[in-house]
């Protein structure tokens, strides 16, 4: 006797031309499970007027690789290793930076002006202390503590391994704030039945950009169990702290991220300085090959694919995040628009050029944003 599907699976399948069956949608996994468990349940014989289930005919989407039941996909190992990522389309393709912007990023520090600014700055300094400790930076490798975000000279340079450890730890933390702020603003927009002021896209794009930095450096260095454990703990604490803090004071949170990005710009600038002075022999080798993921993401031209070029691109990204978050920290968190978000086809808000987020390290003042919005 033929097995029959349970009544709950007699559901409607939607196709291009219409629908077949009853009144609900059948999830694809249920169809596949039924076919494996009860092969004769999916039948088009003349013993019934309609098949119990209908599978849409037509070509398989090119985005989904076709596989056969009972056989393993040839790309399974590649997917497990993460190599298949290189073939996926970029969620946010990088807009690129011109050479003038890349070469004119400078370390800077926005002096705290309010009590909230002071709190944000002190938290960042505390985080910097622990990062130096965890990543094994020795006293002779540290810069002048009185000018921590602008001083670049140290008695002893870092090694390539030390730099990669710092990059990975820094990017694993820097990718959190944009996602937290973007998701909370997304929920706020839904809750209030009001559109966002253009902040969400910039915040989510920032977190994506930081993750691309991380994935690039992970192609060059594979963390051990200790670093993985440290990152796991740091992310758990930082994500929840950022989530709660953003609910109470998004302005302080953006100021905190602005100061955090100041540290990032300082880190990459010092690395460039040591590269130029020949302290990092392996990276200075003209035959050194940077990861393909970096070439593809930044669309790096031929002849500009050295380690120095990679650090220049990453530093420009961090400088942009620095300017954007300091600007967000200067704005009204509910009513003011994102000044770096271009409105399609023009609009009331005229966006500032993106490069200003790099060349204005302290961010745009609110008066500048509002005056441009009203003119």
Helical element count? 13
Main beta-sheet annotation = 2 strands, antiparallel
Mean pLDDT: 79
Strand content: under 5%
Structural class: mainly alpha
Shape assignment = globular
Radius of gyration, whole Å: 26 Å
Strand order of the largest sheet: 1-2
Total beta-strand segments: 2
Residues in helices, as a percent range:
40-55%
Distance separating the two termini: 78 Å
Poorly predicted parts: 8-80, 344-348
- The H/E string reads EEHHHHHHHHHHHHH
Explain what the structure shows:
The chain has 375 residues and is mainly alpha-helical. It has helices at residues 28-37, 76-81, 99-103, 115-134, 160-192, 199-218, 225-248, 250-276, 281-284, 292-298, 307-330, 356-359, 366-373, and strands at residues 13-15, 18-20. It has a two-stranded antiparallel sheet with strand order 1-2. Helix 4 packs across helix 8 (250-276) and helix 5 runs parallel beside helix 7 (225-248). Residues 8-80 and 344-348 have low confidence and may be disordered.
Topology:
Layout: E1 13-15, E2 18-20, H1 28-37, H2 76-81, H3 99-103, H4 115-134, H5 160-192, H6 199-218, H7 225-248, H8 250-276, H9 281-284, H10 292-298, H11 307-330, H12 356-359, H13 366-373
Antiparallel strand pairs: 1-2
Helix pairs in contact: 4-8, 5-6, 5-7, 5-8, 6-10, 6-11, 7-8, 8-11
